[in-house]
Amino acid sequence: MAKKQHTWDDDVAELLRVGPDFDLAAMDRGATPGWSAGKAEAASLMAAHGEELSDLQERLFADAKTGGTRSVLLLLQGLDTSGKGGVVRHVIGMVDPQGVALANFGVPTEEEKRHHHLWRVRRQLPPPGRIGVFDRSHYEQVLVVKVDGLEPADLNETRYDELVAFDREIVEGGTTLIKVALMVSHAEQGERLKERLERPDKWWKYNPGDIDVREQWDAYQAAYAEMFARTSIDEAPWYAIPADRKWYARLAITELLRRALRDLDLGWPAADFDPEVELARLAATARD
Ligand code: ATP
Question: Has residue 150 been placed in a domain?
């Protein structure tokens, strides 16, 4: 008999959702909320859900082809080595790349700096039918920009409300917004950076600036805590994902995405032709 598929013990979205009582300092980043089994069982569920995700994504794409306006945006935040790239590869990699709109937000270019900070973000919002993925996002405005003091503090203070208003606008436009923060522990980040430095095949991922950011660990944690407290809204809550176990983070994000797509409740579009008539026409093309 086939082994029974292990599944979530609990409502993982509820467990990871940042609510008013969320306490970042108390978060165990090696924990696996809602998941009592191990890595092998996670891989098995991931594969099963991957198939469903792929099917749901195709429905979303098909819906837009027939005039639907819905899209989904997965926003990923996290410090270096927190696993953002792995989520893109292993979670988003399970669906048809034609249905994905991926955007990466690094240090603004000279042109971007001449515009309002949301200018470059608006241009990358997913069109109907797509799953958009932001690898970093407009939230850097209250993370690196705040920690490094890249704009005056009083201006930066206004950003929280601005970001929340922008998120609401995205949601009102028909996009389901899933805001995910991958929270790695200080010790685990140290291990991952060490591995990058010890392995020539990982040097390309390393940037000496990663240590500068690590030196500001406490300031970043404070900035994340503030961001969570002020920008987790009902229409677009934050999900704080313990990220020391990469397999858990990927499984949890797969589940958030799967649910978001399921909640759209999309069927397959009706044909705008008569399948019987077309079958008869096809039959008439037969050659002996
Ligand atoms: P990652 O670390 O996300 O995998 P990466 O190391 O390849 O990416 P990029 O994506 O090119 O680098 O850039 C990421 C860097 O850009 C981060 O250090 C981030 O803090 C910085 N950054 C993002 N947005 C801003 C911003 N608005 N102002 C200043 N720096 C920013």
Answer: yes
140 CA closest ligand 1 atom index: 24
Buried residues in 100-125 as b, exposed as e (16+ CB within 10 A) = bbbbebeebeeebeeeebbebbeebb
**104 CA to centre of ligand 1 in angstroms:** 8
Domain contains 5: no
pLDDT (tens digit, 9 = 90+) per residue, 236-256? 999 999 999 999 999 999 999
Query: Is residue 2 domain-resident?
Result: no
pLDDT tens, position by position, 198-217: 999 999 989 999 999 999 99
Average pLDDT in the chain: 96
Please compute the mean of the pLDDT values over residues 73-91 and round it to a whole number: 97
Specify if 7 maps to a domain: no
Identify the domain containing residue 202 by its residue range. Answer: 12-283
How many domains does the chain contain in total? 1
- What amino acid is encoded at 210 in this protein? D
pLDDT of res. 288: 81
Shortest-distance Cα residue to atom 5 of ligand 1 = 106
Burial of 170: CB neighbours in 10 Å, binned 0-12, 13-18, 19+: buried
* Most ligand 1 atoms within 8 A of CB, residue of 82, 105, 214 to mutate: 105
Q: Are 257 and 95 in contact (CB under 8 A)?
A: no
What is the 210 CA–ligand 1 centroid distance (Å)? 10
| Closest CA relative to residue 91, chosen from 131, 137, 125 | 131
pLDDT of the residue at 1: 52
pLDDT in tens, 119-136: 999 999 999 999 999 999
From 76, 109, 139, 144, the mutation candidate for ligand 1 (largest count of ligand atoms within 8 A of CB) is 144
- Closest C-alpha to ligand 1, atom 2: 80
